């Protein structure tokens, strides 16, 4: 979660304990949890509103597809074996063992 390792998490917990003190730490943790829950609810609601606004033509639309990295991976890279989701990926331009045309004089 948030790319935080165990050591970093422990250091943050000790820092929070020192700053807030043992009396205020449970209250702060409760408030942080409440805020995170509200943010998650708002994000899910916004996602549902976007999908509803797009209409039935885009029922399979995934908001994650708007991420440029995911868009490129989805449209320009294909798996060797579609049945194996963990398959090694390769560029679509090199599918079926063929390389794209290359003109040495053009470069």
From TrEMBL:
**From which domain of life does this come?**
Bacteria
Q: Name one Pfam family in it.
A: TatA_B_E
InterPro entries named among the record's database cross-references: TatA/B/E
Predominant cellular place of this UniProt entry's protein: membrane
Which keywords appear in this protein's UniProt record, sorted alphabetically? Membrane, Protein transport, Translocation, Transmembrane, Transmembrane helix, Transport
Q: How does it sit in the membrane?
A: Single-pass membrane protein
GTP-binding as UniProt keyword:
no
Q: Where in the cell is it found?
A: Membrane
Region annotation Disordered: residue ranges?
A: 76-107
* Annotated protein name in UniProt: Sec-independent translocase
Source lineage: Bacteria, Bacillati, Actinomycetota, Actinomycetes, Streptosporangiales
């Amino acid at each position: 979660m948030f790319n935080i390792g165990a050591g970093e998490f422990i250091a943050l917990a000790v820092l929070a304990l020192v700053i807030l003190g043992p009396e205020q730490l449970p209250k702060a943790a409760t408030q942080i949890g409440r805020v995170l829950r509200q943010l998650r609810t708002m994000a899910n609601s916004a996602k549902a509103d976007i999908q509803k606004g797009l209409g039935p033509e885009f029922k399979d639309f995934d908001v994650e597809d708007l991420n440029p990295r995911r868009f490129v991976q989805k449209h320009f890279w294909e798996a060797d074996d579609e049945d194996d989701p963990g398959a090694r990926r390769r560029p679509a331009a090199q599918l079926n063992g063929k390389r794209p045309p290359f003109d040495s004089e053009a470069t």
